[in-house]
Amino acid sequence: MHSDPKKYNCIIVEDEPIAADILEHFISRDQELNLVGKCADAVYASSLLSIHKVDLMFLDLHLPVVKGFDFLRKINNPPIVIVTTAYHQYAVEGYELDIADYLMKPIPYDRFVTAIGKFKHLMEAENALLEIAERDYIFISSGKKQIKIILQDIFYIESLREYIHIHTKAERLTFKMPISKIEESLPPDQFTRIHKSYIISRSKIEMKSANIIQVNGKKLPVGRTYKQSFEL
Description:
alpha/beta, 2 domains, phosphorelay response regulator activity, five-stranded parallel beta sheet, 232 residues, DNA-binding response regulator, CheY-like_superfamily, DNA-binding, 28% helix, five-stranded antiparallel beta sheet, Rossmann fold, CATH 2.40.50.1020, phosphoprotein
């Protein structure tokens, strides 16, 4: 794979054209940021979010019709948000919504750079999600915490929409990440993807047939496309 500079997709949701232009200019100065859309209201912003994979949203709180925070609460899987506002009083309300930073208008460039630094830090924490130290455990980030999972303890991993459940001897752990992400970080000699929704620990197989594998008393389906790789 050729390595492009890492690009984070962002959108600007801002109904004041001058403020939007200033943000666009600031974004253009950062090689890692890629502006995929600008819009002036929440309806258009929703459609941008459905078309593009957006990592960062600059959100003005005073939008026509739907206000910024109300819009944010309705988004299922929101990107990281940097709020832009001319008013101080909103910071508290945003704490529950995982806002990366607040930029007061008019926005000075150095303050923008600081906010982007916070955003990148959050993204890198998410992307470094899975650091493999030795081969006997992995770390997974959950919010600001790193959770250590001993590979030997894992029975199987199950994917449910944008979450995964890791079933271990003691408990079931839930993380927000695609199953493909954790698959990349598991040693392939110990773990096998048997279905778009399941990865199993080979050493924990209790019974197997062409279409079913039993792990820890649970019968899991073998997906058609995974059968071949599983025979190996």
